[in-house]
Design goal:
elongated; D-Maltodextrin-Binding Protein, domain 2; seven-stranded mixed beta sheet; two-stranded antiparallel ribbon; Arc Repressor Mutant, subunit A; alpha/beta
C-alpha cells in the first residue's frame, strides 16, 4: 500500500465527490481519481460506489476508514511533535567557519550565545574548505567570497576589505630602501595560486620576491607580524594586532563579502535562526573593523 494515497481516500470519503476532494487536496480531478484507483488496485477491493448524492463508501471502504483516520492522527501527532522541537531553543547546530575568524573574532561571540541558550549545543567546524550545505555537511557556514552560487539561504552582511600588510618594523626598515615596483621586498606566498599572483601583479610591488610559501592563512598573519614580509590580510587583523600596518599608498580590495549561509530547510528551525541572527548582529557590530576606511 502506498501511504501517499491515503489522504486522497480520506478526502473523497469526507467530501463525497472527486471534485470536492480535488479542491480539498488542491489537486486535479484526474489526480484524485488516479490515486483512488491505484489504492483500490493495491487492496483488491472497491472502496467507493456511485449514488445519487455522489460517492459512497462500500463495505470495504467503511472498514478501511477508521484505520485511515487513526493513521492520519498518528502522523499529525508525529509532525506536531517534530515541529515543536523546531520551535524550541534546544539541540545541536553545526557551524563551519574559517579558523582565523573563529579564533580571533567568533570565539567570544559563540561563548555569549551559549550562555544565553544553555540548551543549544554547537559543533564548531574550523576549516578553509567550502563545506556543502545542500548535502548537510554543515548547518550554517560563514563564508568570505565574491558571490554565492549554492542553492542555499544566503545573507550578505558587508564587504570583506583586504589589504597588503606587514609589521610596522618591516615597513619602517625595508620599504624606504626598496627599489622600483617593490624590488628588494618580500612577499609571503601561497604557492601556485592564480588569484594571489594576480593580486601581486596589480599591486604597487609586482617585482617584490615571493620568498616564502605557506598554505595556512593564519601562518601568513603570524609571519607578517614577525617581520617576514608582506601579505594580503583582512583589514580586521590590524584591529586585533596593532603591530601590523597596511603598506602606504596601497588600495583596499573589496571583491569579497562576508556571507552567512544555511540550508533552506533549516530557516524555520528556531535554534538555527537564533544563531544566524545572533551571529549577524555580532558581526554587524564589528563592521567598522572590517572596513579599511
Amino acid at each position: 500500500m502506498d501511504w501517499q494515497q491515503m489522504p486522497y481516500f480520506l478526502a473523497v470519503a469526507r467530501s463525497g465527490s472527486l471534485r470536492a476532494a480535488s479542491e480539498r487536496m488542491n489537486a486535479t480531478h484526474a489526480t484524485v481519481r488516479r490515486h483512488i484507483q491505484s489504492l483500490e488496485a493495491s487492496l483488491g477491493v472497491q472502496l467507493f460506489r456511485r449514488s445519487r448524492s455522489g460517492l459512497e463508501l462500500t463495505l470495504a471502504g467503511q472498514k478501511l476508514l477508521p484505520d485511515a483516520q487513526a493513521a492520519e492522527k498518528i502522523l499529525q501527532q508525529a509532525q506536531g511533535g517534530l515541529q515543536g522541537l523546531d520551535r524550541e531553543a534546544t539541540g545541536l547546530i553545526r557551524i563551519s567557519v574559517d579558523p582565523m575568524s573563529g579564533h580571533y573574532l567568533l570565539a567570544p561571540v559563540f561563548a555569549r550565545f551559549c550562555s544565553l541558550y544553555p540548551e543549544i549545543e554547537l559543533e564548531i567546524r574550523l576549516t578553509y574548505d567550502v563545506e556543502d550545505i545542500t548535502k548537510f555537511e554543515t548547518d550554517i557556514s560563514l563564508r568570505h567570497t565574491a558571490q554565492v552560487t549554492d542553492d542555499v539561504v544566503a545573507r550578505k552582511l558587508f564587504p570583506l576589505d583586504m589589504g597588503i600588510y606587514a609589521s610596522r618594523d618591516y615597513i619602517s626598515e625595508a620599504v624606504p630602501s626598496a627599489g622600483k615596483h617593490g624590488a628588494g621586498l618580500y612577499w609571503i606566498g601561497y604557492g601556485d595560486v592564480p588569484e594571489l599572483r594576480a593580486w601581486i601583479d596589480a599591486s604597487p610591488f609586482p617585482d617584490a620576491k615571493v620568498r616564502h610559501t605557506v598554505r595556512d592563512p593564519e601562518m601568513h598573519l603570524h609571519l607578517a607580524r614577525s617581520g617576514a614580509g608582506m601579505t594580503f590580510l583582512p583589514v580586521w587583523c590590524e584591529h586585533q594586532f596593532p603591530e601590523l600596518q597596511r603598506l602606504p599608498d596601497t588600495d583596499i580590495d573589496q571583491t569579497r563579502s562576508v556571507w552567512l549561509l544555511l540550508h533552506a530547510d533549516l530557516r524555520r528551525v528556531t535554534r538555527v535562526r537564533l544563531l544566524v541572527d545572533f551571529l549577524a548582529n555580532a558581526l554587524l557590530e564589528k563592521r567598522s573593523q572590517f572596513r579599511g576606511r
